[in-house]
Design a protein that fits this description.
The protein is α+β, with helices and mostly antiparallel strands and 350 residues long. The protein contains three helices and 21 strands. The N and C termini lie far apart (83 Å).
Length: 350
């Protein structure tokens, strides 16, 4: 009986330990998800402290005064992260009698935006970088310049001063070095433009659909947006591989390269595949957020293809260059350290 009880207790202890470990893992998992949740969406304003809002309807809540405010909890932010606020709303226009609703937006009593609301839309404002130091609550206030009641406009007996109908309010964290949320790129990676190889997430506009081996530019300008990780204080070089089409009177397709709106080079791209490169000045790279624009001099139609083709890009790569000063320092170190140490070793052997 004693042996049985010992065995039973041992099994109980093992199951207890497993349960505690599993519980800890679950708590850690869900806590982590809450802390680093990419976006927090608030749909029901009645869950929070408000003034100047009517009782929520099925999908929105009207503002009913010149000022309407809501206090929402501040989500936890990682270091070097900021916060943007997006409000989806529509205006009260009184069946077309009014043309717009002008709205001033305050966050923690600071004026951050002036919105002119003419239709259902999502409006975004970036919150101050020190918002995380201003307490655990974000106080959002909408100041409506010209609220009107349906009764004033002789539309109904509703005497509420309506301004805007708020549908959702969301808070989205973003990397302060990458406020546009460009897709991240690692220095040295070969970005392939064949179908399904991943370049699509960097393409902003001016591109056709990816094909088996490349992607055509379509139109005068093709844009790529990317956030290059750890780009600060590095000398970088942009290389693009591909080929082009051009008219019978031309010998190549001229492609002007802009990075962050600065013209860096003009490439003469031929019909055979080639690689074209340009160095990226540090003043252009800045914090690593790059908008690359390939400007096609003479987009061309081929046969019955309705597209305005320019360059067929198959690969892009940003690599690090070692500066001449670095090379000089290495050579100096080799000469004065390695060679000197070798000479001393030879002397000691003798």
């Amino acid at each position: 009986m004693k042996v049985f009880n010992m065995a039973k207790n041992k099994r109980f202890m093992i199951f207890g330990i497993i349960f505690i470990v599993a519980l800890f893992a679950c708590v850690s998992f869900f806590y982590g998800k809450t802390e680093h949740k990419p976006q927090v969406v608030y749909k029901n304003v009645s869950e929070y402290t408000t003034t100047g809002f009517a009782q929520p309807e099925k999908r929105f809540a009207w503002t009913i005064a010149k000022e309407a405010a809501i206090a929402i909890p501040l989500p936890k932010l990682q270091d070097n992260y900021g916060l943007s606020m997006t409000v989806k709303l529509f205006p009260f226009l009184g069946d077309g009698i009014l043309k717009k609703q002008a709205v001033d937006v305050f966050v923690n009593d600071k004026l951050l935006a002036k919105w002119v609301v003419k239709q259902t839309d999502a409006y975004t404002v970036v919150l101050p970088n020190d918002i995380k130091n201003q307490g655990n609550v974000i106080n959002v206030k909408f100041v409506i310049k010209n609220p009107k009641s349906p009764k004033e406009l002789k539309l109904s007996d509703d005497a509420r001063k309506l301004g805007i109908a708020v549908q959702t309010l969301s808070l989205t964290p973003f990397n302060l070095d990458n406020p546009n949320n460009f897709a991240t790129y690692d220095i040295g990676d070969e970005l392939l433009f064949a179908q399904g190889k991943g370049a699509e997430k960097y393409m902003a506009s001016g591109w056709s659909s990816p094909e088996q081996s490349f992607t055509w530019t379509d139109g005068k300008d093709a844009y790529l947006n990317m956030f290059v990780k750890n780009a600060q204080d590095k000398k970088l070089r942009l290389a693009v591989s591909g080929h082009a089409v051009y008219g019978p009177k031309d010998s190549n397709q001229k492609v002007t390269v802009y990075v962050n709106d600065k013209e860096l080079s003009i490439w003469e791209v031929g019909k055979e595949r080639g690689t074209y490169a340009v160095n990226l000045p540090e003043s252009v790279v800045q914090n690593g957020a790059l908008q690359i624009r390939l400007h096609i001099n003479k987009p061309t139609k081929v046969g019955q293809d309705p597209r305005d083709l320019g360059m067929a890009v198959d690969m892009l790569k940003i690599s690090q260059l070692f500066a001449a000063k670095t090379k000089t320092k290495v050579a100096f170190w080799v000469k004065n350290k390695v060679l000197t140490d070798s000479e001393e070793t030879v002397k000691n052997v003798k």
